[in-house]
Amino acid sequence: MAGHSKFANIKHKKARKDAARGKIFTKLGRELSVAVKEGGGSDPNNNNRLRDAIAKAKANNMPNDTIERSIKKAANEGSMDNYEQIVYEGYGVAGTAIIVKALTDNRNRTAGNVRNAFTKGNGNVGTTGCVSFLFEEKGQILVNKEESEMEHDDLMMLALEAGAEDFSEDEEWYEILTSPDEFSQVRLKLEEEGIVMENAEVTMIPLNYVELTLPEEIKKFEKTLALLEDDDDVQDVYHNSLYS
Predict the structure, then answer these.
(1) 9 part of a folded domain
(2) Domain count, the chain
(3) What is the pTM of this model?
(4) Residues spanned by the domain of 91
């Protein structure tokens, strides 16, 4: 069983996503399109990257017809060829570690916006690798306990037998962690068994956390997160802060 402190981050992230649903759909649409272009076509049965992007979109309540439109548009128009993936790393207030993943057609614009977000929260962008060693890349699946018809032990055995590495819980969720390579098969097995997933994606899990307790620190850190997540080029933000 993994520690439970990580679930505080999940709750904050979910609340921010719920508050910016329309912008999230735009970003997910871009991710779907890039997955079509770079993952090998519009058939998720033959494109693992697209299959995982679809799962992430569904877990964020993106309508099926919207998902299908994004895939068809990418397959027919080639409109995402000029987008590149960039990863930024840096430090937030109190030495918190932040990783930013972006898809952009203008590297200078995105770099400037990311740097501005860090600066306004009293942080700074660092060099590649400066904080990534503080995280592990993992497949993460969240199941809302209230929506799960399967008992704890049965769900845990199902996940572990499918290839999951860890199974943990708090008051609201079950969390299933996998290696990035095993994520797709574990998620598909749960889907086949009718398990409703609150979230399903390959993410960055902190190896340890920095607890923020001072209101001013929390305010500055949330300022950085808000600016990053409001940026159309930013797809995902990962951090190791812990606060309530």
Answers:
(1) no
(2) 3
(3) 0.84
(4) 84-133+207-242
